[in-house]
């Protein structure tokens, strides 16, 4: 049991959920490593949703709101960390959910589908009937009703190859990725540099006040290159500030 007073309480609880998901066969081995990479960037960012993240989250909600066939792609980590919030968000914006795995096994697919069903949501992906072009077989599988025909896809924690393949299909791609330097972050149309569970909660709030006029205005003003630059500048400035405190006082306060 982790005490709530622990300075890394939130982070440790997320780690517990990932470990639990791994034990249940939902999270892949590589998912553990991907989570660790995310934690590192969150440490550098300061473990809170900064302005560049909030702007991207609002733009993401705006684009999903205006989409014709929006789909949220989920994998093991997303399921372990945020399944109930993903369902709430999907309902708020009337989007489909599809399971899509980098390390696809039929068993993991079934477990993820079951996890969502236990929470009252049916999701696509167990019976793929289409392929994303230019990806090797298992990673290309998707459903015609979902990702294949989607105009807008939200792919949290995605890998660079698939993000590029989705872009090449002409889709509008939104990602949530704590690493602004990943290929996915650089390729997506909207890059949310924020931790998944914080991002989804913020997006549920943005969905509440969204309407067509607001969505169009938000998207007109949005510039993803600038948002990526802001996230890198934030990390740089924060490290400079911490280094300054370190050299001018007795301790480092993160
Ligand atoms: P790419 O192939 O896009 O260059 P990568 O090799 O880092 O990126 P993966 O390991 O497949 O790709 O993707 C995991 C990404 O998700 C990492 O960039 C990591 O920073 C990020 N990530 C992991 N956990 C979280 C989380 N909880 N919230 C947001 N991002 C996360």
Record the SSE blueprint.
Elements: H1 9-23, H2 29-45, H3 51-66, E1 70-74, H4 76-93, E2 96-99, H5 106-118, E3 130-131, H6 137-140, E4 141-142, E5 152-156, H7 160-168, E6 172-176, H8 183-187, E7 190-192, H9 196-208, H10 212-220, H11 224-248
Parallel strand pairs: 1-2, 1-5, 5-6, 6-7
Antiparallel strand pairs: 3-4
Helix pairs in contact: 1-2, 1-4, 3-9, 3-10, 3-11, 4-5, 4-9
Bound molecules: adenosine-5'-triphosphate (ATP).
Adenosine-5'-triphosphate (ATP) binds next to helix 2 and helix 8.
Characterization of this structure:
This protein is 57% helix and 10% strand. The protein has one domain: Rossmann fold, CATH 3.40.50.12640. The protein is globular, with a radius of gyration of 18 Å. It has helices at 9-23, 29-45, 51-66, 76-93, 106-118, 137-140, 160-168, 183-187, 196-208, 212-220, 224-248, and strands at 70-74, 96-99, 130-131, 141-142, 152-156, 172-176, 190-192. The protein is an alpha/beta fold. Helix 3 (51-66) runs antiparallel to helix 11, helix 4 (76-93) packs across helix 5 and helix 4 packs parallel to helix 9. The mean pLDDT is 95. Bound molecules: adenosine-5'-triphosphate. Adenosine-5'-triphosphate binds at residues 34-35, 37-38, 41, 81, 157, 159-160, 176-179, 182-184, 195-196.
Brief sketch in words of this structure:
The protein has 254 residues and is of the alpha/beta class.
Keywords:
254 residues, alpha/beta, Rossmann fold, five-stranded parallel beta sheet, two-stranded antiparallel ribbon, 57% helix, binds adenosine-5'-triphosphate
């Amino acid at each position: 049991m982790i005490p709530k007073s622990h300075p890394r309480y939130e982070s440790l609880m997320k780690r517990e959920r990932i470990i639990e998901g791994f034990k249940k066969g939902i999270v892949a081995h590589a998912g553990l490593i991907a989570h660790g990479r995310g934690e590192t960037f969150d440490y550098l960012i300061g473990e809170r949703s900064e302005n560049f993240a909030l702007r991207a989250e609002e733009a993401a909600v705006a684009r999903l709101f205006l989409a014709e066939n929006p789909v949220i792609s989920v994998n093991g980590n997303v399921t372990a960390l945020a399944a109930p919030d993903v369902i709430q968000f999907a309902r708020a914006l009337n989007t489909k959910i599809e399971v899509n795995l980098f390390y696809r096994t039929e068993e993991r697919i079934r477990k993820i589908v079951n996890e969502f069903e236990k929470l009252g949501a049916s999701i696509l992906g167990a019976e793929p009937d289409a392929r994303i072009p230019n990806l090797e077989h298992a990673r290309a599988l998707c459903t015609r009703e979902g990702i294949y025909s989607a105009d807008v896809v939200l792919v949290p924690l995605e890998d660079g190859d698939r993000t590029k393949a989705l872009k090449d299909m002409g889709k509008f791609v939104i990602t949530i990725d704590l690493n602004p330097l990943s290929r996915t972050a650089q390729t997506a149309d909207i890059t949310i540099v924020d931790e998944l569970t914080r991002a989804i909660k913020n997006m549920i709030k943005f969905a509440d006040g969204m309407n067509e006029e607001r969505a169009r205005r938000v998207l007109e003003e949005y510039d993803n290159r600038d948002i990526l630059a802001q996230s890198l500048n934030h990390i740089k400035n924060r490290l400079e500030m911490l280094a300054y405190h370190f050299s001018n006082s007795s301790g480092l306060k993160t």
